DNA sequence: AAGATATTTTGATGATTATCTAAATATAGT
DNA sequence: ACTATATTTAGATAATCATCAAAATATCTT
């Protein structure tokens, strides 16, 4: 299920934009939601999809919940693509 | 739409397996379908999803239709992931 | 304990998706 | 032209998904 949920998470532009924002700094759910013209529950849903896919981590600090990138899954995804990309018969 | 359809195409294990098989050699739709316990129309549907995403190319040769990998889209996908993966503040 | 703020959960809805069977199309060989 | 082979298209169904409004939960402040 790892690769499937990761690619599924990446297939939505809203979620890709969230990941792209988190690349610069950790953000609260509210900060993230403000960047979109989408309801908070929908953003919360997207964050949950990313969390289930292991691409983000959340941590509560007081009233806020901070989200941050979890790059370990990216390794798996990139590794799969590189293996696919590099043709088998190529020896180097 | 490019990245979304590419990631969506990659989110299905059947389609990932098809891509993985095509890495070794070009195959006809029939050869591909034989590898799965899924109906031919369903495989045809998956091939069409991959084609729409620009990840495979099809070419008719007589009765057969050959499918082959199209790696140009992979560049785009990997580039996006690498940009996401490499943290912004890292200078090297 | 009561009110304010931040975020998620619930329940509902319309859109998309994976799958099937049956029918249609295209090519090759007789 | 007819038949066999290869593959896709059409039509239907059940499952999943993105979205919203309303309600619930958690933490902080007073």
Describe the structure.
Chain A has 92 residues and is of the alpha+beta class. Chain A has one domain: Arc Repressor Mutant, subunit A. Helix content of chain A is 59%, strand content 15%. Chain A has five helices and three strands; from the N terminus they run H-H-E-H-H-E-E-H. A three-stranded antiparallel β-sheet of chain A has the order 1-3-2. The model of chain A has no long low-confidence stretch (mean pLDDT 92).
Q: What is the annotated CATH architecture of chain A?
A: Orthogonal Bundle
> How does the overall form of chain A come out from the CA principal axes?
elongated
- Overall structural class of chain A, as computed from helix and strand content, comes to alpha+beta
Largest interface: A-B, 27 and 27 residues
- How many beta-strand runs of chain A? 3
The CATH topology label of chain A is Arc Repressor Mutant, subunit A
CATH class of chain A: Mainly Alpha
Q: What is the H/E order of chain A?
A: HHEHHEEH
Main sheet of chain A? 3 strands, antiparallel
In brief:
Chain A has 5 helices and 3 strands. Chain A is of the alpha+beta class. The termini of chain A are far apart.
Break the fold down into its secondary structure elements and pairings.
Two copies of one chain form a homodimer.
Chain A: H1 2-10, H2 13-24, E1 27-28, H3 29-34, H4 40-52, E2 56-61, E3 64-69, H5 72-85
Antiparallel strand pairs in A: 1-3, 2-3
Helix pairs in contact in A: 1-4, 1-5
Chain A binds a DNA duplex (30 and 30 nucleotides) through helix 3 and helix 4.
């Amino acid at each position: 299920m790892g690769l499937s949920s990761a690619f599924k998470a990446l297939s939505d532009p809203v979620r890709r934009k969230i990941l792209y924002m988190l690349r610069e700094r950790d953000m609260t759910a509210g900060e993230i939601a403000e960047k979109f013209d989408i309801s908070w529950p929908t953003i919360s849903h997207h964050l949950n999809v990313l969390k289930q896919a292991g691409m983000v981590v959340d941590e509560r600090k007081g009233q806020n919940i901070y989200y941050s990138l979890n790059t370990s899954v990216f390794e798996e995804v990139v590794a799969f693509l590189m293996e696919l990309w590099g043709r088998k018969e190529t020896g180097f």
